[in-house]
Design brief:
8-stranded antiparallel beta barrel, 163 residues, 2 helices
Length: 163
Amino acid sequence: MKNTGFALMAAFLMMLGTFAKAQLTMHKMISVGYTYQNQSFGDVGGKLLFLSNDNVVYRLGGSAMMGSANSKFAIMPKVSGDIMLNFEKNVDFYHSYYFVMGAEATNKYVAPKVGFTLFGLLDLTGGYAFPIGNSGINGKELKGLNINFTLNVPTTFIHDMFK
């Protein structure tokens, strides 16, 4: 069961390679958010956004989830992968929202997720977490409903702000 998370992430990366076309543009982002996984966690990390057109966008990320579980501070590493889709044409704000589907994995659980993002900057996703083995964190079981609210800030925006 421990290898399930790694197998899912490897399958996702292979799928990403299958659908990816040559000449992908990459953008770096800093992400800050909130994750509810049977407990509240703050989420800080970075993401890479890959695109060749605005209809299909890929994101890979890594972050640290920090919070209190059973009154003890806890930190978990997290990796995530998303595919963002929007095939709508002739709109005022060209591709202002995307449908998101992806997965996230920690050393304690794997969670497929779906949701929406506004301009690729503000995400709201939800899913269901499956525990890896019988390990929890500080005696707290991490399975069930998974909700994520994330703000993604492009590093070029930060760079331009301090010029």
